[in-house]
Every structure is written in structure tokens, then in C-alpha cells.
């Protein structure tokens, strides 16, 4: 066989394996837990994706992260593109980069006018000093502007492993107080609210946190954040920067294993544990998966396609029959 022929044969075998892996998920509980998953993009990364329909199932909720310095025009343009492609778009509204209520009202109007948006992830934002009068998600919600605009879904941040920006001295007293306020807000309004959590690498802290919230009377569903496939060094960098807590030990342990050091991390283990917990505890607040594509949206979407069965089939593949 010629070198060219050998190369073609190897590629054919590789592609055959990929197709079969995508068509035959190995874990029914994992498939169920991944059904209806959400994912996050930024305008600059979205601009590099030629066709989202080739990556994501139709109707996938796509959060658009608003990083400080990103023009609102780019955010709205990305939202409109994804909406036109048939996705359920939820842009971020970070309190600390919004200078005043007039700006917030303008952003809401732009999203609605150009992309038909009626949902948002309301959060404090990752900057140290507020740009203006807002410093918390609660202040944004208190303006009443989302309600006036007819927003139907308002998600807020959740921190299973704590948040040192909110509780700088450790513990979670302030975090829990904020969650009680958000629960009360949900109870007195028509908004459908959920907690979108920071990513973690171990199921047990998430499960313990969910159980604690439920024991204290909170009912907000939890959309568990996990990191998509990525190089170990990349994940450790993001984890430290984002304040990931005890579950960081999972990555540290992996870094000590030379057999895994060069392999990309995948969220299979943590999601299987969460899927098992949900199957055994259907009343758990843990509701579904949210993926942070820290290693790239393509690799994250392909991982889901290969593990979620019919729930992970991209829209373009469904349309092609």
C-alpha cells in the first residue's frame, strides 16, 4: 500500500470510530443528564465559529459572556446571529460594568429590538471596582427593568464552593443571604429563575451544597457548571483565577499522574457522578448541565455529541436526516 493509501485507510478507520462513538453513548444516565444542556460563548470566540448548527442541538441555551471592554454592539450582534440560528440565547448582565440604570435599559432594549431576547444571566461581574452605581445582581433585579421588559427567565450565579469576592473572610454567610434574597425575589415575581454555578471538578461538594439549599427551603433549580475538555494546564489556570475551591484537588491529583498528564481533561467522571445522584434523587435541586468551553467550543460540543446520544445531535445533522 502506498503512503497516501495508508493515510486514507487510517483516516477512514478513525472517522468510523468517531461516528460510532457519537451514535452509541455508553451511559444512559449521563445521556439523560446532558439532555437540554447549555453552553457559554463570547463574541470574539463566536465570530470564529462558521456554523453553530453544525455543533449544537437546535434550541440549545447559549449564554453570551459579557467581558469588561466588549462593546454592546458585539454582544447584540452575536445574540441576533444565534437567535436566527434557532438557539435559546441568554446574555450576561454584569452589574459592575453597567454604569447606570439608563445604560441597563438601553442594553435591554437593544437585545429585545435586534434579537428578541427575553432572558438574561444577572450577575455581579468579575471586575474589582464597579463602573458606576451597581455592584451586585440584586441591585440590577431591584430596578424592575427586566420585569418591565417582559423578561421570562432570569438566572443568577451560584457558588457551591463559596466565593471569596462575596465572603472575603471565608465561609458563606453573605453568599447564603444573597441566595435567600434571590429566592424571595423569585417567589414574589413571575420570573423563572435558576442558579447557574461556577465550574467544579468534583460532584460531592455540589451535591452537598444542593442538599443544604434544599434543607433551608430554597427551591431554585441548579444548572451545574462544568469545564469542557481542555488541557490540564489551561484548566488549572482558569480554576485559580476563578476561585474554584476544594474540587481543584481533582486537577492537582491528575497532574501527579504521569499517565494522564498529557491527556486532555474531560468532564465525564464528575457528570457521571451527578447523573447517578440525580437518577437516584429525582427531587434534587440539581437540574441540568452548563458547560464552560474552556478548551474551545468545538471540542466541548463534540464531547457532548459523543456522550449525549440523541440529546447531543447537532441541528445540522438532524436537518440533513
Question: Which H/E pattern describes the elements?
Answer: HHEHEHEHEHHEHEHEHHHHEHH
Radius of gyration: 20 Å
Let me know the average pLDDT: 86
Approximately how much helix is present in the residues? 40-55%
Shape: globular
InterPro entries: FAD-linked_oxidoreductase-like
Protein name: Methylenetetrahydrofolate reductase
GO molecular function, one term: oxidoreductase activity
Keywords: Oxidoreductase
Main attributes of the structure:
single chain; 321 residues; alpha/beta; TIM Barrel; eight-stranded parallel β-barrel; disordered N terminus
Describe the structure.
This protein is of the alpha/beta class. The protein has a single domain, classed as TIM Barrel, CATH 3.20.20.220. It is 47% helix and 14% strand. The chain is built from 15 helices and eight strands. The protein has an eight-stranded parallel barrel, surrounded by four helices. The longest helix has 21 residues, at 3-23. The chain is globular and about 50 Å long. 38% of the residues are buried. GO terms for molecular function: oxidoreductase activity. Keywords: Oxidoreductase. This is Methylenetetrahydrofolate reductase.
Amino acid at each position: 500500500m502506498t503512503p497516501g493509501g495508508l493515510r486514507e485507510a487510517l483516516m477512514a478507520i478513525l472517522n468510523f470510530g468517531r461516528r460510532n462513538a457519537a451514535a452509541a453513548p455508553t451511559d444512559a444516565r449521563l445521556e439523560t443528564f446532558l439532555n437540554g444542556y447549555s453552553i457559554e460563548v463570547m463574541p470574539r470566540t463566536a465570530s470564529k465559529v462558521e456554523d453553530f448548527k453544525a455543533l449544537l442541538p437546535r434550541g440549545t441555551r447559549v449564554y453570551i459572556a459579557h467581558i469588561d471592554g466588549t462593546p454592546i454592539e458585539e454582544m447584540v450582534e452575536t445574540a441576533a446571529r444565534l437567535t436566527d440560528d434557532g438557539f435559546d440565547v441568554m446574555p450576561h448582565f454584569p452589574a459592575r460594568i453597567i454604569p447606570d440604570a439608563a445604560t441597563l435599559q438601553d442594553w435591554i432594549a437593544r437585545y429585545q429590538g435586534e434579537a428578541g431576547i427575553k432572558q438574561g444571566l444577572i450577575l455581579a461581574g468579575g471586575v474589582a471596582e464597579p463602573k458606576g452605581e451597581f455592584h451586585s445582581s440584586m441591585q440590577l433585579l431591584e430596578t424592575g427593568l427586566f420585569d418591565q421588559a417582559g423578561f421570562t427567565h432570569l438566572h443568577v450565579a451560584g457558588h457551591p464552593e463559596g466565593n471569596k469576592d462575596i465572603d472575603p473572610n471565608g465561609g458563606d454567610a453573605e453568599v447564603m443571604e444573597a441566595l435567600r434574597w434571590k429566592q424571595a425575589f423569585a417567589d414574589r415575581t413571575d420570573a423563572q429563575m435558576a442558579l447557574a454555578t461556577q465550574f467544579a471538578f468534583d460532584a460531592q461538594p455540589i451535591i452537598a451544597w444542593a442538599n443544604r439549599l434544599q434543607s433551608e427551603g430554597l427551591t431554585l433549580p441548579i444548572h451545574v457548571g462544568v469545564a469542557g475538555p481542555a488541557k490540564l494546564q489551561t484548566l488549572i489556570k482558569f480554576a485559580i483565577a476563578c476561585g474554584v475551591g476544594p474540587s481543584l484537588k481533582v486537577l492537582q491529583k491528575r497532574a501527579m499522574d504521569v499517565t494522564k498528564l498529557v491527556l486532555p481533561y474531560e468532564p465525564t467522571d464528575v457528570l457521571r457522578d451527578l447523573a447517578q445522584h440525580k437518577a437516584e434523587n429525582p427531587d434534587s435541586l440539581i437540574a441540568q448541565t452548563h458547560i464552560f468551553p474552556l478548551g474551545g467550543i468545538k471540542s466541548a460540543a463534540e464531547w457532548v455529541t459523543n456522550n449525549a446520544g440523541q440529546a447531543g445531535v447537532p441541528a445540522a445533522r438532524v436537518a440533513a436526516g
